[in-house]
Every structure is written in C-alpha cells, then in structure tokens.
C-alpha cells in the first residue's frame, strides 16, 4: 500500500491520540530511572494499545462513502488490520513493561503484579481480553494457514468480547474515564451497525433480470432495482446477497463484486467468475429471484487522479472496473484519454474484448489493446511502450490476479514510475 495520506487519516490520528493527550498531565514525561521508565512505557503502551483496539473496531463500520475518506474499502481494511496488529503488540508491551518494572522489588512481586489474586477482576478482565485477541487474530494473520472466509468472519465476532473485556480492564483503573467511554461507544456502535442493523437498513432490493454466459465459468448478471437504484461511479463495488431459494450455496451470504455497468445504465451488471462455492452457484442463479445489494464502496478511479491520461491494465475477471468505465465513456463527451490493455490467457478468455473494441471504435478517447499470455508470454516493457509510448507519464490502474499485479508493479517500478501513481484494486480482502 503506497503511503498516501487521506483526510480520514488525520481524524484517525486525532482520535487515537485523544486518551493519551488527556492522560498526559498525570503521566508526565519519561522518568530517568530504569524501573520507573519501564512503568511509564507500560502505561503509555496500554493507553495507546487500547485506543488502537477501540478505533480498529470503529473502522469496521462499513458505511457507503465513509471508506472514501480513507482511499476505499480495501485501504480501510488494511488500516483496520494494521491498527489491530499494532494494538496487540502495544498490549503485549504494556504487560511486559509493567511486569519488568516490578522486578527490582523482587521476582515474586513482578509475578503478582501480572497475575494477582482472582479477586482483582479488572486485571483478569485484561488477560481474558488478550486471550480473545489471540484467538481471533491468529487466523487473520494466517499463522495456521488460510481459513475458510465465512468461518473467519464468525470467529471475528470474538473481537466484541475482547473489546468489552478490555474496557472492563481499563475503566476501573483509568484516571479519566470519558475518553474510554467515547471510544468504546464508537467501537460498539460500529459493531452493532454492521452485525445487527445494516443487514436490514443498508441493503437495497434488486431482482435478477438476466444471466448471460460470457465464457466457461463466467456470467454477467443484470439486476433491476425494486425501488431507487444505487448511484455509483466506475470502479466501485457492491456486496451482493442473493436470496434465490434454488441456490446450492451462498444463499443469504454477502460477497463483494465490482459493478461492470455504466453509472447511467438502468440495470446494475456484475461480471461473476466461478472462484468457489458461492460464485459457482451464482452461475445459474434464477432469473426473477431477489438479491440484496449494499454499497457502493471503493475509490479505484478517484476524482483527484484525473489530471493525467490513464493507463488501464486489467486481467481475468479484474477487467470489470474497466468495463464499467469504458461503458460509461460513451455517455461522457469530456475526459482524459485511457489506454486499456486487456490481459487474458487467450482469445477464448477475453470475454469482454468484443464489446470493449466496439466501445473504442465509438469513443475517441479510448484505445483497447489485447495481450494473450499463452501466445505472447508475460506482458513486456517493449509491448507496453510500442502500444502506449507515454505510459510512464500516465496515471496507472491495475486490476487482476496477484501474479499479474506483482509482475506489473515490478515492471513499472523498474521504469521509475512513482508508486503513488499506481492504483491497484485487489479482489481479496484477507
Ligand atoms: C473489492 C472486490 C471486488 C471483487 N469483484 C469481483 C468481480 O467483479 N467479479 C468476480 O467474479 N469476483 C470479484 N471479487 C471476488 C469475489 O468476491 C470472490 O470470488 C467471491 O467472494 C468468492 O466467494 P466463493 O464462496 O465463491 O469462494 P470462496 O472459496 O469462499 O472464496 C474464495 C476467496 O474469495 C474471497 N472471499 C470469499 N468470500 C468473501 C467475502 N464475503 N468478502 C470478501 N472476500 C471474500 C476470499 O479471499 C476467499 O479466499 C471481488 C472481490 C473483492 C474483494
């Protein structure tokens, strides 16, 4: 993730530092003596660690539009993971430093500081919070291999217990409690919204209008809104929850899919590739069945990048954001030029190529070039330069399988393209 600062980041830093700023007069500066310094580090680590944990929970809110304050939902999830991991490290530091600070008074005193009699509920509440964190963080960081996505989501519910237990630890011990009430309320509100309220309040009803096969294992589903449709921009995505009774998997389960239609299309279209149980079942979803849509999310083609011509590199099902943008260009007279490279294994897997080529014939500021891996091998610098001589000066957008993305990132970095000018959409949040 390139280090770009978004407006939401400043808010995040302010909220994170609030409890420390409030406690600062009581904490004072770092003392000179070693044991006192360790005690000070332990307390600062605990305050920052708990603030990070509560803010991590608040960031899980998933409100359409809110993610754009942070550069899109994938970056928001990245921040969520980073802060969650940071919270865990700081909480470990808190425990270790407070224990070590008591060593000069004797080993027994140090052990008793960390493991007091059971009657000291606030301290044991802290340990239980730590245990809950270990249980739900281990699969997130894939210490024991990759976990089934739905099981991982269920396990993540333990984070609510960790939050409550951590507050049960901090509130009786803290000098000033209001920052913890505030951050705790934000974290819990985010979880209540996400798990209890958003399934009924944030989802919009649609009906499947058609299911068009594009290639083996790929369909385009067109959905008609039952009420007012979602408003979206090219490059954004939705969470689709199909309700079709006849589905063999994934009924009532939400999955993210990039919108492939133009924003002015009365139907919302999704190109869906069979990549697992739920997406396999969707290949034969019943026409006329109901589906709920939540979103839109994401900020792939952010408005503030639009000062330069664009280079689009889309591979496999990662072509969908570019299909939406190309379809949208027909309705917009003005805008910068875009050169799309459609990377596919072969002509049989370039399922949107015919339509994109027709778009480029109608729209002067769009050029489409196909590249077939089976015939031409990995995309080379010479191929790029031949078809788009000024590609290094363009704003660059990548979407496709991880192997393609890392090959292209290396290629572009070797040509000196700054990381901040390369925008990636990944179809994987884990
Ligand atoms: C931002 C984004 C946009 C996407 N756009 C498209 C698209 O336009 N077309 C398309 O075919 N696919 C798209 N995907 C991928 C699609 O979401 C997964 O293929 C689908 O969720 C797989 O579910 P499954 O049960 O079929 O397979 P599984 O075997 O359950 O999952 C395969 C992998 O998909 C990911 N995944 C599964 N469920 C979810 C979930 N609920 N949320 C996030 N990731 C999940 C996990 O990494 C998992 O390892 C997109 C993914 C993301 C994150």
Automatic annotation (TrEMBL):
InterPro entries, alphabetized: FAD-bd_8 (IPR013112), FAD-bd_FR_type (IPR017927), Fe3_Rdtase_TM_dom (IPR013130), FNR_nucleotide-bd (IPR039261), MRET (IPR050415), OxRdtase_FAD/NAD-bd (IPR001433), Riboflavin_synthase-like_b-brl (IPR017938)
Single GO cellular component term: membrane
Residue ranges of every copy of the FAD-binding FR-type domain listed in the record: 201-303
Membrane topology reported for the UniProt record: Multi-pass membrane protein
Pfam families on file: FAD_binding_8 (PF08022), Ferric_reduct (PF01794), NAD_binding_1 (PF00175)
UniProt keywords, alphabetically: 2Fe-2S, FAD, Flavoprotein, Iron, Iron-sulfur, Membrane, Metal-binding, Oxidoreductase, Transmembrane, Transmembrane helix
Swiss-Prot/TrEMBL cofactor(s): FAD
Entry-linked PROSITE patterns: FAD_FR
Family annotation (Gene3D superfamilies): Nucleotide-binding domain of ferredoxin-NADP reductase (FNR) module, Translation factors
GO molecular function terms listed in the Swiss-Prot or TrEMBL record: 2 iron, 2 sulfur cluster binding; flavin adenine dinucleotide binding; metal ion binding; oxidoreductase activity
The protein's name: Predicted ferric reductase
Organism field: Franzmannia pantelleriensis
């Amino acid at each position: 993730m390139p280090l770009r600062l978004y407006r939401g980041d400043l808010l995040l830093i302010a909220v994170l530092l609030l409890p420390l700023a409030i406690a600062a007069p009581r904490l004072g500066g770092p003392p000179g003596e070693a044991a006192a310094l360790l005690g000070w580090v332990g307390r600062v680590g605990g305050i920052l660690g708990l603030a990070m944990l509560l803010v991590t929970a608040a960031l899980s809110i998933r409100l359409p539009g809110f993610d754009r304050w942070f550069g899109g939902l994938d970056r928001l999830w990245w921040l969520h993971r980073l802060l969650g991991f940071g919270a865990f490290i700081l909480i470990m530091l808190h425990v270790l430093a407070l224990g070590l600070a008591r060593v000069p008074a004797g080993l027994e005193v140090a052990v008793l500081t960390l493991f007091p009699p059971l009657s000291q509920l606030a301290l044991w509440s802290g340990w239980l919070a730590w245990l809950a964190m270990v249980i739900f963080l281990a699969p997130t960081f894939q210490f024991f291999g990759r976990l089934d996505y739905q099981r991982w989501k269920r396990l993540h519910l333990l984070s609510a217990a960790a939050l409550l237990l951590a507050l049960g630890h901090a509130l009786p011990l803290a000098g000033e409690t209001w920052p913890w009430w505030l951050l705790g309320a934000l974290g819990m509100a985010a979880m209540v919204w996400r798990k209890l309220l958003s399934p009924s309040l944030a989802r919009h009803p649609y009906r499947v209008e058609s299911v068009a096969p594009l290639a083996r294992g790929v369909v385009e589903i067109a959905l008609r809104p039952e009420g007012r449709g979602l408003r979206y921009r090219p490059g954004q995505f939705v969470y689709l929850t199909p309700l079709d009774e006849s589905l063999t998997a994934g009924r009532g389960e939400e999955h993210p899919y990039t919108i492939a239609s133009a924003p002015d299309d009365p139907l919302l279209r999704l190109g869906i590739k069979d990549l697992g149980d739920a997406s396999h079942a969707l290949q034969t979803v019943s026409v006329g069945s109901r589906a709920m849509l939540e979103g839109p999310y994401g900020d792939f083609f952010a408005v503030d990048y639009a000062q330069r011509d664009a280079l689009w590199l889309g591979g496999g099902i990662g072509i969908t954001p570019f299909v939406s943008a190309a379809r949208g260009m027909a309705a917009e007279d003005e805008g910068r030029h875009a050169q799309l490279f459609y990377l596919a294994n072969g002509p049989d897997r370039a399922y949107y190529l015919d339509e994109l080529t027709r778009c480029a014939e109608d729209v002067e500021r769009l050029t489409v070039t196909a590249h077939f891996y089976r015939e031409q091998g990995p995309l080379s610098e010479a191929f790029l330069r031949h078809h788009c001589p000024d590609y290094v000066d363009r704003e660059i957008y990548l979407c496709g399988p991880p192997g393609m993305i890392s090959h292209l990132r290396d290629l572009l970095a070797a040509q000196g393209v700054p990381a901040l000018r390369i925008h990636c959409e990944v179809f994987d949040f884990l």
